[in-house]
Write a structure and sequence with these properties.
The chain contains three helices and no strands. The chain has helices at 12-23, 28-46, 49-60.
Length: 61
């Protein structure tokens, strides 16, 4: 399965609000660390090296 790039999150606005709320009150350093942990958790969940490489490439563009 390839990388899904179309909106695929149920109630995306609610998720975005919860993501922002999770960052609320954090310093820039704490926010960056939270993002790094979240990325690693989700990358582990995905587990497919090819999909992860596609995501890295897309994010770098």
């Amino acid at each position: 399965m390839g990388l899904i790039t179309k909106s695929n999150i149920a109630d995306a606005d609610d998720f975005y609000a919860r993501l922002l709320a999770t960052h609320r009150g954090l310093t820039a350093e704490q926010s960056q660390a939270l993002n790094a942990r979240l990325i690693l958790i989700l990358a582990n969940h995905i587990g497919d090296a090819q999909v992860l490489q596609q995501a890295l490439t897309l994010a770098a563009d």
